[in-house]
Structure to design on (228 residues):
């Protein structure tokens, strides 16, 4: 579960990135986070992953209280939260298999676990026949699938997808969103940060809209015609 209670985040320049955000995302929920550039979306991601601490207010993520989390606890928090980035952040000199296996090795997984888990996750994202390819040999959609596999491989309870379709054409975007929906159906909490309101309307999931550091709307991401 992700819970923000009256969260304020101020930076040294004196401006408030968040001005009192309260929201709750339940275990297993699929939720969009939208808002204009500079509205506070990136700050929310950094708070959830423990990269930042709130100036005031409380944040609870998967059993951790982030306003008072200790530095040595942050790696354990991050094992519960997988992040998918718009720019993929893949290691080009590693193969598909090695990119995903690396994510397990950095958290101390045993080789036996890696040999069992990596092929399963690559099959889940449709890349089981590309294990020996390098990222530069793959399309943008395939690279994003690989980034999703890497975020998923340590079996996090939550995945944050930060503009996962930002570099993709509409057809590939729908494929990636359908994949995220499938992963959510398996029980993983899904938070998708996006500017693409068409995707929000198409999938009809809960949409938390942020503007000027505040939640300004929280409901189903439907067109008015659909809502009627």
């Amino acid at each position: 579960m992700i819970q923000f209670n009256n969260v304020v985040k101020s930076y040294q320049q004196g401006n408030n990135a968040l001005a009192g955000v309260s929201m709750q995302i339940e275990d297993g929920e699929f939720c969009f986070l939208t808002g204009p550039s500079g509205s506070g979306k990136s700050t929310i991601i950094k708070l959830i992953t423990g990269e930042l601490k709130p100036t005031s207010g409380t944040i609870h993520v998967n059993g951790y209280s982030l306003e008072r989390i200790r530095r040595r606890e942050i790696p354990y928090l991050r094992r519960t939260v997988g992040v998918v980035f718009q720019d993929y952040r893949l290691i080009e000199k590693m193969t598909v298999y090695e990119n995903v296996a690396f994510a397990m090795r950095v958290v101390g997984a045993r080789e036996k676990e890696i040999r069992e888990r990596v092929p399963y996750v690559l099959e889940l994202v449709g890349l089981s026949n590309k294990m020996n390819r390098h990222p530069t040999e793959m399309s943008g959609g395939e690279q994003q699938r690989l980034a999703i596999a890497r975020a998923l491989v340590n079996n996090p309870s939550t995945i944050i997808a930060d503009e996962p379709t930002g570099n993709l054409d509409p057809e590939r975007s729908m494929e990636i969103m359908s994949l995220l929906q499938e992963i959510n159906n398996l029980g993983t909490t899904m938070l998708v940060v996006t500017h693409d309101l068409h995707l929000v309307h198409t999938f009809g999931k809960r949409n938390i809209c942020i503007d000027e550091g505040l939640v300004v709307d929280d409901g189903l991401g439907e067109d008015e015609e659909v809502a009627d």
Remarks:
- The two ends are 31 Å apart (CA to CA).
